[in-house]
Each structure stands twice: as structure tokens, then as C-alpha cells.
């Protein structure tokens, strides 16, 4: 494999990897919402945004938080067990009318009409094994489905993370770390590259979770961008 030409089939195999992980652990990240989702909800409420698109929703801990807080949530994930978990949680919580969960590969166009959503949220989708050109397409698709002035909030592990440049290099600042997970570490410069059509509101650094076998924490950016008219 050419390090500057990432192996797409290898990335496709990550879907099976995540499905196996979710099948073995029904609550891999716990049931409490992520800190970025809590902060995003505050922003969405302050701006009277009600219709939220969530990408890379995993097993639905943030999906359920948004629904419980009165948002209409459309959650997409490319893992079938993840989508099934979201649907089950929505039924059991009596929130099925507030949640729509769909299996979808974000490398393909989003299955929604233009200007369908007030806001978009994704926690660590941008550090999945997506090439830079694929991330540019994701940002463009989010721009398309957001209403004018809509907000896109996402998180990503960044190049200051302790696991950056460790493991097996997979091209374009992507590294296969322990557990078989491929992580795309983004720099501030890369984020600016992905912000075409948006105004960057804020890039906030934060930490989340210990790296297994160490006393170090994962380092992330929380990025908030507003769609330009």
C-alpha cells in the first residue's frame, strides 16, 4: 500500500470491526451523554434549533440525550448493530416518535433534501478512517442539508493526541492503533480546510477518556461552524 494512497478496502473492513465490537459490548461508551453533546444541546436550544442530524451515532447515547431534551433527531451510523441499538433504546424509552435511526455510509450522499436540518452533531466521526477528500465531501453534504445559518458541531482527535504517530501508518495522518482501530488525527489547518462554506465559531480543546494501559487521556477538538448564507 502506498502510504499517501490509503487502501479503501482496508477502511471498508473497519465497518465489520465496529459491528463486531458493538455486538460484543451493548454499551461500549456507556449510557451517559458525551460532554460535547451536552454543550451542543445548550447551543441548539439557545438558537431555537429543534431538528438535529447526528452522524456516526454509534449505539445512541447522544441520540437519546438529544431526544430526551426535546429535539427531533435523525441518527445515522454505518454499523447495523449500532442502529438497532438506537431503535431499541428509543422504543424502550418511549421516544420512538422523536428518533429516526438509519444505517448509512457517510461516504455516500446524505439521504435528505437540501436545507432539512437546523443543526448537525457528530462525536468523533471526523477521526474515523475517512480520507481528506471524503471528509471534504462529508462537510459539503452537511452544508447542503443544513438550513441557512445552521450549525455543524463535530469532535475529532487531533495531532496533539498521545497516540498520534503510533501504531501502523495508514496514510494521510491515519494510524492503526491498539485494538485494530484506525484513527484520522486532524490538525487545525486541516479543520480550516474542511470549513469551506462555513464560518468557524470556535475550536475548543478537551480531553475524553484514558488511553488503555496508560495514564494519558485522548485529546480532541470540539469544532463549531455556522453555515454561510
Automatic annotation (TrEMBL):
SUPFAM superfamilies per record: S-adenosyl-L-methionine-dependent methyltransferases (SSF53335)
User: What keywords is this UniProt entry annotated with?
Assistant: Methyltransferase, Transferase
Which InterPro entries does the record cross-reference, listed alphabetically? Methyltransf_25, SAM-dependent_MTases_sf
All copies of domain Methyltransferase, residue ranges:
52-150
Q: Name one GO molecular function term.
A: methyltransferase activity
Q: Please indicate which superkingdom the organism of origin belongs to.
A: Archaea
Gene Ontology biological-process entries: methylation
Could you identify this protein by its name? Methyltransferase type 11
A matching Pfam family: Methyltransf_25
